[in-house]
Specification:
292 residues
Amino acid sequence: MTVFIDKTGVLERISKFCSRSIKKESKVKALKLALSMVDLTTLEGKDTSGKVKQLCYKAMLPYSKMPDLPKPAAVCVYPLHIKTAKNILTKSGINVASTATCFPSGQSYRSVKINDVKTALDAGADEIDMVISRGEFIRGNYNFVADEIALIKEICKDKHLKVILETGELGTLEDIRKASFIAMEAGADFIKTSTGKIKPAATMPVTLVMLDAIKDFYYKTGKKIGMKPAGGISNSKTAIQYLVMLYETLGNEWMSNKYFRFGASSLVNDLLMQIVKQETGIYQSFDYFSKD
């Protein structure tokens, strides 16, 4: 059954999330929580082992002057760089995530996608971020999409599977909700907005629709599914607004990196800058933080 989504109502709810007043103590907690929820990511054609190593060192020690800060949840890289990341992050508590299923387009044979996932897992990936076959979804071939997700989850076993919908290509909010349910019913541990390779990437209206789908799926099945907005979230103010939306939609049980992640890289330095400001009263320039 198709559910009609009131876009005006969605926007009204978001305006309320964005207008919440947050006290200093709560703001510091929110900034640190957001830092712990980041999947620190590099997914560029120019990635090198040196860049990946630097990103891993950044994850283990985000800011040397505050060594007790939370660490990001994961470092996300292409399969080629999994072993490099794994060698550094072993025993750090930080997971290694990898894109798969012919990221970012997903335009390949299923056998190639399966091999892509198995290669990533064999290299040591703790988490897999797969893309759905958007072309098949748009054609209305929902069973194809569901079967592919279920097959990939079977291969992943106990490894976390994040299913990327690429919401900017799906069109309507109703289709985004439908894709969310297909992914969850097929075995996704997380649903994720975007690859970060097209615009729009993550937006608050899209994320709210996906959070509502997670809530309805939980009421239906009792199973908690995670959420990962990715792409375009680059500042602390926006990250906190997402956390307000998360809390008021799904509640306290989802307020951890077990069930919520930010797919980002530039967000980390802004979070660090704001944490330093709240803790010391002094703004640091971006020049004081490593650029990764």
